[in-house]
Each structure stands twice: as structure tokens, then as C-alpha cells.
Design a protein that fits this description.
about 180 residues, alpha+beta, eight-stranded antiparallel beta barrel, globular
């Protein structure tokens, strides 16, 4: 029988919602299925800290228009490639999970399959630098997956500190929770 390991992720993976300050854009993400951890080690702790960890949760849909085009493999490839370019090992730990991505803007409401990817700041970057890296990653995901927007939650110890809408204009969003 395979040995199972319980891993506590210092980030919020539950359902979330967001809205832009001007009220023109809003949405929700409802996870479904089990989260998957992609990690570079065998999950044995090699450091400990009592300080809350910074994490980013990136939310994205898989459709272009109303047609499903992308999938989890496409998203993971982008995340690994961009993080490698940012100097983070491409096999660094992150969590991903499928879900339903719903967004509303001036043209109506769309519900589509999508995903959340949670990246932990294991390298100890400052909040500012980590946030810049996540915005850069969000922009690449948005461009390559042909999305109007990608949502990024910056969390500390699982508590959302900031919600950012990465669009062609990089409109910052407020948390609606």
C-alpha cells in the first residue's frame, strides 16, 4: 500500500470572489477535484518558520470566447517556464487545481472550466518583488492563453492581502470576500 503524506499549504485554496473598484468586472472561482502538489523534494521539512508565508493564487479560465482551448498541462508549462526565467527552479513547489471560473464584464457572464495555481514564496523574496514576479507570470499566462484577464491573490499565511486583475490595462481589483 502506498504511503500517503498530509501536507499543509499556507494558502487559501477555497472558493473566492473578486470585483474591480469600478464594479465593471467581477467573478468567482469554485475549485473542484483534489489539489495536486508539484514539488522538487520528498516533502520532508528542511526548514521551519513561525512567520506567515507569502503566497500567490493565480486564477484563469481555459476558454477563448466560449470555446474550451487550453488545459492544465498548458498552464503548468507556462508556470514552470516563466518561474525558471525568473530564477526560480522549474521544479519548485506549487499547487494546482481545476475549478469553475466565472467572470462578468460589460458583455455578460461567462462560466468556464479553469484552474488555480498557488505559488509559495519559498525563496524569501520581499512582498514587492514576489508580487512583481506574479504579475509578470500573470501577464504571460493571459497573453499565451488568450485571456482578457487573469486574477492574482497575494496572500500571507492564507489571508488575502491584495487582489490584482491582470488585464491589458492591469486594473487592480478589490477583494469582495
Amino acid at each position: 500500500m502506498a504511503k500517503t503524506t498530509t501536507l499543509t499549504i499556507p494558502a487559501n485554496l477555497r472558493q473566492t470572489s473578486w470585483g474591480s473598484p469600478d464594479g465593471k468586472s467581477r467573478g468567482t472561482f469554485k475549485p473542484n477535484g483534489r489539489p495536486t502538489v508539484r514539488t522538487r523534494n520528498n516533502l520532508k521539512p528542511n526548514w521551519r518558520s513561525s512567520e506567515p508565508m507569502w503566497a500567490a493564487r493565480i486564477l484563469v479560465g481555459f476558454s477563448v470566447g466560449h470555446e474550451p482551448v487550453y488545459n492544465m498541462d498548458d498552464l503548468i508549462r507556462i508556470v514552470r517556464r516563466v518561474r525558471d526565467k525568473q530564477g526560480i527552479p522549474p521544479d519548485a513547489s506549487f499547487v494546482y487545481q481545476k475549478g469553475m471560473y466565472t467572470h462578468t464584464d460589460g458583455s455578460g457572464t461567462v462560466t468556464e472550466e479553469g484552474a488555480q495555481v498557488v505559488l509559495l514564496n519559498l525563496t524569501g523574496e520581499s512582498r514587492e518583488k514576489f508580487t512583481e514576479q506574479m504579475i509578470e507570470l500573470g501577464n504571460v499566462i493571459r497573453e499565451e492563453m488568450q485571456q482578457e484577464a487573469v486574477i492574482i491573490e497575494i496572500q500571507r499565511g492564507g489571508v488575502v492581502q491584495e487582489v490584482i486583475g491582470v488585464t491589458t490595462t492591469e486594473t487592480e481589483l478589490e477583494n469582495d470576500e
